[in-house]
Design a protein that fits this description.
heterodimer, A: 814 residues, alpha+beta, 20 helices, 34 strands, B: 211 residues, 9 helices, 5 strands
Amino acid sequence: MSRPLNIIGKPRPRVDGRARVTGQTRFAGDISLPRTLHCRLLRSHLPHAKIRRIDVSRARSSNGVHCVLTGADMPIAYGIIPISEDEHALCIDRVRYIGDPVAAVVAVDEETASAALDLIDVDYEPLRTIATLEDALAPVEQPIHDYVGKTNIQRMMSWEFGDANAAIDRSQHVFDDVFFYGGNTHLALEQHASLATLDPEGRLVIYSSTQTPHYLHRGLARVLGLPASRIRVIAPPNGGGFGGKSEPFNHEFIVCKAALLTGRPVRICLSREEVFYCHRGRHPVSMRLRTGVDEQGNITGMHLQTLLDGGAYGSYGAVSTIYTGALQTLTYKIPAYRWDGCRVFTNKAPCGPKRGHGTPQSRFAQEVQLDKIACRLGIDPAELRLRQLVDPDTLTANFLEIGTTGLRDCIDRVIVGSGWHGRRKQLPFGRGLGLATSGYLSGAATATYPNDLPFTGVQLKLDRSGGVTAFCGATEIGQGSDDVLASVVAEVLGIEPDAVKLVTGDTDLTPVDLGSYSSRVSLMMGHAALQAAERAREYLASSLTRRLGIPVTRLVFAGGRVFDSEDPDRGFSFEEAVTFAEADHGTLGTVGSYTPPDPKAKYTGVGPSPAFSFTACVVEVDVDPETGWLTVLKVWIAHDLGRALNPTLARGQIEGSVYMGLGEVLMEETAYRRLPPRRSPALVQKAPSMLDYKSPTFLDMPEIVTYLVEHPDKNGPFGAKEVGQGPLLPVMPAVANAVYAAVGVRIDEIPITPEKILKALETKRRNGVDRYGPATFPVVPWAAARRIPTPAEGGDGNAAVRLRRRPSPTSEGR
Amino acid sequence: MKLEKCLRSAETRPDASGKNTPGDHDRAVIEDDPPDALRSSCYGRAHGQMEKCIITFEVNGERSEVSFLPHRTLLEVIREDLGLTGTKHGCEVGECGACTILVDGVPILSCLALAVEAEGKSLTTIEGLASGPRLDPLQSCFAEFGATQCGYCTPGILLVAKSLLARTARPTRAEISDALSGNLCRCTGYLQIVEAVEAAIERMNRPLERP
C-alpha cells in the first residue's frame, strides 16, 4: 500500500458529526414504539442474603401491570467469560450485592411499574457480608458463589517467565513496594436503555445501549432458549461506553423475556443510581511489586502480585485479573518476570472492564516504583527509562510481539515540551514535574469465547447510483468507529467519507464484529474494511482499464473520480465507474474480514495483540502543603498510535483519556459505606449519584499538550494502532510522581486526595516516613507458578508443563 | 385545564395576585411535600384522580399545545409528548446538564422543571438551533473540531454555549468554561469543546466573505 493518502491522516469532521450536533443521533433510549410497556426492577437492599420466598401475587394483580418476572422465569445462567457464567437475569435463590435484581414489573407506564414494585414481598435471610479483601480471603462457611468451592477466591494464577526471584535476589538493589488502586466507574452520560419488541414475523428484536451486540446476541439465545437466528440485536450509537456496556446485562434479558410474554414492546431505562449498582468498573487492586535493578538502574527481574476485589460476579474478571499482569513487559526490558494474580468475590457491585482494563493499576505501581528507583540511584527518571526501552520488532519475556514502538520519540516529545531538563530541579517547593510511560494493546488476539471465526467482517454494496454502503457489526460508542469505517472505504475508493453510507451494529444486517472493547475496532474492522474496499476497487479497476486501455497501475481513485495518472483529464466519475463495473460483473458487493495472526504466546489468550501503542506523559502539579490541595497545572502527552486515521478524533481520544485519568487520580472512587457488622450487614455505595461521585468539570481541566507520534505498524491498517485507552495509563503515575517532586511525599494509593497528601506530610514531619499507602500486602495462598521459558531461554511460548509432554531440544523442560 | 387550575390540583398555592411567578413554582416544588396524588402513582389512582392540564408554549418558534399530567417534568413532556428526543437525560435529578434547554433564552435543567411552568414561554431545544438546513456556527464548529464524541452531552452544552454567546459576544476562555461547568462530558476532556466555542465566536464575528 504505497498509494498517496487523501483522507487518512487528514483532520476531518467526523462523519456522524452532523447527527450529533443536531440532536438527531438516536440512542437506545430515544427509540419509541406504539403500545410500549415499561419495566422497572426490584433490586436487593441487602448485600448478601438468601431469598426464602418471593410473593408477586399482589403486584401481578395490580391495575396496569402486564407481567411480573422472577428468577424462576429465566433459570439459565450467563456470563461474558465461559469460565464464570455465574449471573441470572433475576436472582434465583440468593442476592449478592445491593442492587442485585430480584423481580421485574412490566406495566403501562414507569410509575405504575414502580408502584407495583412496592407490592412484591421478598423474604430474605441475611448472610454474612463479605466487604473487604481480608474478609474474602478468610475461611468461609457460605461463599458468595458455590462454583469455585468453599472459598471466595474466584481465580488465582501464577506465571513465571525465567527465574525472576533468583534474578531479583542477585541484583545490586531490590525495591519492594506495596500499592493500592481504588475502584472507580465509567459514568457514561447515557444511562443504559433497552427496548425489546417482536417484529411482524414474531422474531425478537432488541435495541440496547451495548458496546457488544454480538455477545448480547449469544447471551440472549442461550438464556431465552431461542435460535440466535430468531433474535435481532440492534446497538444504536452508545452515549459513552468506556467498558461499562460491554457485556450482557440483567435488564436486557428481562425486557426480551417480557416482550416474548406480552407480545408488546417493552422498554427500560436504568436510573443513574441503578447504573452505579450495575457498575463493571475499575477493580480495586492491592499490589506488591518487587523489582531488582543493577547499578545503572536497569531492571534485572520483576515480581508483581495483584489482588483484585471483584465484587459480586465474574463479569470479565478472569480476564481483568490477567491484564493486571500481562502488559508489564511492554515498555522496559525485563529479562525475568513473575506475576501472581488473584481475584476475590465480595458483596459489592461487580467490577469489570473500564478503559485500560486491568492495566492502569499495575502500570501505576510500576511507574511510581521506577520513579523511586531513579530517585534512590540519583538517575534522571527520563534517562532511567530511555536506557532500557524495549526495542521494536522484539519478543518480550512473556512473548508479547512488539512491532513498532515509538516510545523513545514519545518520551523525547514530552521531555522537550515540558522543559523537563531545565525546569525539573528549578521549580519551587510545592511545584513538581512527574513522568510516566505505558503501552497498550490494539485488540486482544483472542475472542472471549474460543472459536476459529473472523473477529470482524465488513460488507460493501455499490450500485449504479454511485452510492456505497458499508455494513459492519462494530458499534459506535463515541470513539469514532463509524468514521474509521467510512474513511478507510473512502480512501481506497477515492470518494469522500460522507459519501459512504453506514449500517453498523445490527445482527440482522451486518457481519459479526466482536464489539467495541479492547481497543480493537480501528485495527480489526479497519483491516476488514480495507479488504472489502480493495476488492470493490478491483471490480471497478478491471472495468476501467479495459475502457481506458491502460494498465491497472495507472488508475487513480481520488476526488470522486477514477482517472489515468498520466493524463488526469482522461477518466470517469466514480458513479460512471460503478455503473461500468455493474454492467460487466453484475450486482456489486464485496466482503472483507479479519482474524489476528496466531500469537507466539501459547500459554494465554490475554495480553497478546497484533500491535501495541505507547504513551509518555509529563504532568506539572502544584501542591499546597498547608491544605494538601493538589492542582494539575499542565499535561504533556505523546502517544504512538501508528498512524492517526483522523487526527481530530485521535486527539479527542487522547485528551479524553487524560481527562478520565485525572478523574481517577484526583477524585473518582467507587467507595462503600459500612456500619459495624454487629449492627448492620449494610454495605452501600457512598456516592451512587453524579453529584456525590465527583468527576472533573470544565473548570478542573488543565491545559493539555498532545503529540501524535506515528510509528506505523505492519499489522495495522495504514499502520494504525490503538488510541482509545492507552493514553489513560501514564496519567495517574505521572501525577503521583509529580506530587513527590513537588512536596517530597509518595502517595502509593489512588485516588490521591488532599487528605492523603496532608497525612503523608504529617508523618514525614513526625517520623521521617515520606509515604502514604498500604503497609502490607494481604496474605494470599498462592499456588505454584506455571513456568513459561522465556524466548532467551529458548521457550516456544508454551508453559513448561506442556513442554515436558512434548520434549523439545531447545527447552529446559523444568 | 389552565395553568392556575392545574397548579391547584397539584396543591400548590398561587400568590395573592393570582399570578404564578417562577419563584412560586420553585417553592411549590421544593418546599411542599408531594401531594398524595403524586406520591402514590399507582395506575388507577394516578390516572383516575389527576386531571390533565393543557398548556400552550412556543417550541423552537412554533406554538404548541400539549396536554399532560401536572406532575410531568418539562424533560418528560419534551421527549415523550413532543417527541423531541434531542434533549437528553443522564441523571434526571439536575446533576449532569444533559437535559439543558433554553426557556426564554435562559438555560434551565428541564429535568427539574415542571412542564406547567413553561406556560406561555418560549423554549429552544437542540432541534431548534439550526436555521432550516443551515447549522448554527456553534454546531458546525462542534462537528468540525472534535467537540462531540458520543454526542450525548452535546445538545445541552450547545444550548448553554448559545445562551452565553447571546449574552457575551466575546467571552474569555475562563468565561466559557465557567458557563459550561454545569454540563458533564465524559468523552472529550472538554478542551476541544472550548476550542469549538472559540472557533464559532471567530466565525460569527468574521465579516462576510464573498466567494
